[in-house]
Design goal:
The structure holds two protein chains of two kinds. Chain A is of the alpha+beta class. Helix content of chain A is 40%, strand content 10%. Chain A has eight helices and five strands. A five-stranded mixed beta sheet of chain A has the order 2-1-5-3-4, sandwiched between helices. The two termini of chain A are 40 Å apart. By secondary structure, chain B is an alpha+beta fold. Among the domains of chain B are: 48 residues, Uridine Diphospho-n-acetylenolpyruvylglucosamine Reductase, domain 2; 99 residues, CO dehydrogenase flavoprotein, C-terminal domain (Enolase-like, domain 1). Helix content of chain B is 30%, strand content 20%. In chain B, strands 4-5-8-6-7 form a five-stranded antiparallel beta sheet. Chain B has a four-stranded antiparallel beta sheet with strand order 9-10-11-12, sandwiched between helices. A three-stranded parallel beta sheet of chain B has the order 1-3-2, with helices on one face. The longest helix of chain B has 17 residues. Classes of the chains: A alpha+beta, B alpha+beta. The structure holds flavin-adenine dinucleotide, iron/sulfur cluster and FE2/S2 (inorganic) cluster (FES) (2 copies).
Chain lengths: 275, 328
């Protein structure tokens, strides 16, 4: 495969996608894996969406790398607390209302909107992040309490342009539909895998005194039960975690539609739409 | 959420003093219950004293048993080798509750003090004596499917919803607390929570400002034959409708010692001395377990919508004892 993402020989793009690609100056300096992924994804038909997500993620990651900056207090802050938040490797000192939970600090003050708000009450798992490597719910964590701890959000999982294995597996196995629960599912899965490596037990572990680190599908389901998926993408989620846990990659059972085939499929869709 | 002052306590004595000095102050553990209730405007503290950085999270062998720090996380407690080996019932009870994320946050002290899940308690538009004494009990004549069948009063029919405390009760655990004056008390788990009576606003016998510092487990002969059974509306991530902590000490097929504690059936973990008496001295057999289950539920007083808990409770007791004795 060539080093550069070649638009002319690559998959056909819509006018919108083409424009977006051109408008993105940073795209030229990102590495092979991400470029290929985006190219393929575009061809897969979900292009614009994935492209925007990745680009936004980049911008946000960049935003978070200025250390030492102090954000001005938002209006109407009561009982202000000064908190040094260490998020995805970068420290930011914020003046926050003592009531602010980590979820809102991430989304409203740090523009890290990857972490999602579902129920805001501990009942859905959408807001899951990692604190000192352990999965927790950011909606029930006061921001002030994580001072000095390492927070990792979904934006911080990928290494440069290399997706985290769990992220890649979610794409491979279609571990999502609308994607709203996905950042929480992925962070939770990363936590589950670490817990399994430590030999932690679960509600479905037969003998809690025996030490085992192997996750059966039932174990995965139980351990992930704190993450609700309204779309019911559970089979894909379990498959993704199973693969990363086992360390054995199986072949992808689907492929991207490209070239002439894509043109034909597009025509068929257009014909369908006119019906 | 109403404004509150956030304070990080430097040591246990300072934490207890800070809360004792302000009637509207509360301790902050993992926050998984109190923040939820503050968002719902049910809890309205004007000061939270964060105790999670106090050095009270050790789990260690102590005088033949094990002492668990009040600030150890639920997940660390459940997975500690000393607990898994000697008190598997406690491990099972903890991992039956909440979710992986919540157990990583929840402290043992906060877990003991989690409040009821009665829907009227959560809904500030409804009457509730626990939330606002004197307003009446919405659940008494309302929807009371998840409510108590033992020990309730006409002031409150709520249940204590937690799992961990049921196992602790069966294991004869003792809660260590420390007051603002530095005075320490040891409260057996069975006397830690209370029945509602005329003052349902009070869940436990803890005084304001008393800090839970540890939970002590005595040496136990139940490790081989115990089981925590939890019955709920879905397979995981839900509170119990009925749960049973069953622990047996067997000798040549006969029951030498027994504990049967039911959860989510009363305002506190509900130990059945009747069931235990029916078991001790008898064989470990399904027939004997059935008699014990009948004895356990004989005094139940169900409400309009929770009659099912009586039969469910009996079957749960039998199943838990069968699993504990490895007959099932
Ligand atoms: C969606 C959901 C599902 C759940 N499911 C279950 C379940 O199935 N089973 C179950 O058992 N639980 C369940 N829980 C409850 C959960 O276990 C409790 O919320 C948790 O254990 C409370 O611990 P915490 O440290 O977060 O307490 P916090 O919320 O921090 O505190 C709770 C109370 O304890 C007081 N407190 C805290 N620490 C101390 C201390 N050291 N001394 C004195 N007072 C103290 C606080 O002031 C507060 O009043 C669930 C919770 C949620 C949100
Ligand atoms: S049962 Fe107790 S908690 Fe529920 S409404 Fe009645 S008084 Fe309130
Ligand atoms: S938003 Fe935190 S658990 Fe639902
Ligand atoms: S993918 Fe839509 S909620 Fe999970």
């Amino acid at each position: 495969m060539s080093d550069e993402f070649d638009e002319s020989s690559g998959p056909e793009l819509t006018a919108d996608e083409e424009a977006l690609l051109k408008e993105m100056p940073t795209l030229t300096d990102v590495g092979q894996a991400r470029r290929t992924f985006m190219g393929q994804t575009i061809a897969g038909g979900m292009g614009l969406f994935a492209l925007m997500l990745l680009e936004k993620e980049r911008a946000l990651a960049a935003l978070c790398t200025e250390p030492g900056a102090v954000f001005a207090a938002a209006p109407a802050v009561e009982n202000p607390v000064r908190v040094a938040l260490k998020i995805n490797g970068a420290t930011r000192t914020l003046e926050l209302d003592s009531r602010m939970v980590l979820l809102d600090a991430l989304r409203e003050r740090l523009e890290l909107t990857g972490t999602k708000k579902g129920c805001d009450q501990g009942q859905c798992g959408a807001c899951t992040v990692l604190v000192d490597g352990r999965r927790v719910l950011s909606c029930l964590t006061l921001a002030a309490t994580v001072e000095g701890k390492e927070v990792t959000t979904v934006e911080g999982l990928a290494k440069e342009d290399e997706l985290h294995p769990v992220q890649a597996a979610f794409i491979k196995y279609d571990g999502f539909q609308c994607g709203y629960c996905t950042p929480g599912q992925i962070c939770s899965a990363v936590g589950v895998l670490a817990e399994a490596r430590r030999g932690d037990v679960s509600h479905v572990t037969e003998d809690v005194n025996a030490s085992t680190t192997r996750l059966t599908d039932d174990e995965i389901r139980e351990r992930m039960s704190g993450n609700i998926c309204r779309c019911g993408a559970y089979p894909g989620i379990v498959a993704a975690i199973r693969e990363v846990h086992s360390g054995r990659e199986s072949a992808r059972t689907w492929r991207f539609v490209e070239g002439e085939e894509l043109a034909r499929v597009r025509k068929e869709w257009e014909a369908d739409e006119t019906v | 959420m109403r404004p509150f002052k956030y304070v990080r306590a430097s040591d246990a004595a300072a934490a207890a003093r800070a809360v004792a000095a302000n009637p509207r102050a509360k301790f902050l553990g993992g926050g998984t219950n109190i923040l939820d209730l503050m968002k719902e405007d049910v809890e309205r503290p004007n000061e939270l004293v964060d105790v999670t950085r106090l050095k009270l999270s050790e789990i260690k062998a102590a005088s033949g048993g094990v002492s668990i720090g009040a600030l150890a996380k639920n997940s660390d407690t459940a997975n500690h080798p000393l607990i898994r080996r000697n008190y598997p019932l406690l491990t099972q009870a903890i991992v039956a509750g909440a979710s992986g994320q919540l157990r990583n946050m929840a402290t043992n002290g906060g877990n003991l003090l989690q409040r009821t899940r009665c829907q009227y308690f959560y809904d500030t538009a409804m009457p509730c004596n626990k939330r606002e004494p004197g307003t009446g009990c919405g659940a008494l004549e309302g929807l009371n499917r998840i409510h108590a069948i033992f020990g309730w009063s006409d002031k409150c029919v709520a249940t204590y919803p937690g799992d961990m405390a049921n196992a602790l009760y069966a294991l004869d655990a003792v809660v260590r607390v420390r007051g603002a004056s530095g005075r320490e008390r040891a409260i057996p788990v069975g006397e830690f929570h209370r029945l509602p009576g005329d003052t349902p606003q009070q869940d436990s016998n803890l005084a304001h400002g008393e800090l839970i510092t540890a939970i002590d487990l005595p040496k136990s002969n139940f490790a081989k034959n115990s089981y925590y059974l939890k019955v709920r509306d879905r397979a995981s991530y839900a509170f119990a409708l009925v749960s049973v902590a069953a622990a047996l000490e067997l000798e040549r097929g006969r029951v030498k010692q027994a504990r049967v504690v039911l959860g989510s059936v009363a305002h506190k973990p509900w130990r059945s001395l009747e069931a235990e008496a029916a078991l001790v001295g008898g064989p470990a057999s399904e027939e004997s377990f059935r008699r014990a289950a009948e004895a356990a539920l004989a005094g139940a007083k169900p409400l309009a919508h929770n009659g099912y808990k009586v039969e469910l409770g009996k079957r749960a007791v039998v199943r838990a004892l069968m699993r504990a004795s490895r007959l099932a």
